[in-house]
UniProtKB/TrEMBL annotation:
<dbReference type="InterPro" id="IPR036868">
    <property type="entry name" value="TusA-like_sf"/>
</dbReference>
<comment type="similarity">
    <text>Belongs to the sulfur carrier protein TusA family.</text>
</comment>
<dbReference type="Pfam" id="PF01206">
    <property type="entry name" value="TusA"/>
</dbReference>
<protein>
    <recommendedName>
        <fullName>UPF0033 domain-containing protein</fullName>
    </recommendedName>
</protein>
<feature type="domain" description="UPF0033">
    <location>
        <begin position="7"/>
        <end position="31"/>
    </location>
</feature>
<dbReference type="InterPro" id="IPR001455">
    <property type="entry name" value="TusA-like"/>
</dbReference>
Length: 75
């Protein structure tokens, strides 16, 4: 999946992945995609809920070798 912007949030504990994601998505235009990589287990629920509450669309979420990867389309 082709992302407009990439955010490396690996090694960051809650709430930093969300804080960084908010800042990054604000730099995008509606319809553009933010790819986020995080290692905090809580980020799975946090980023899913944040995307929904912010009017964004979680296109895909997967886990690979302890890294949670998210693709969020800006609403």
């Amino acid at each position: 999946m082709e992302a407009t912007k990439f955010l490396d949030a690996k090694g960051l504990a809650c709430p930093m992945p969300i804080v960084r994601a908010k800042k990054a998505i604000n730099e995008l235009k509606s319809g553009q995609i933010l790819e986020i990589h995080a290692t905090d287990k809580g980020s799975k629920n946090d980023l899913t809920a944040w995307a929904k509450s912010g009017g964004h669309e979680l296109l895909k979420a997967e886990e690979e070798n302890g890294v949670f990867k998210f693709w969020i389309k800006k609403g």
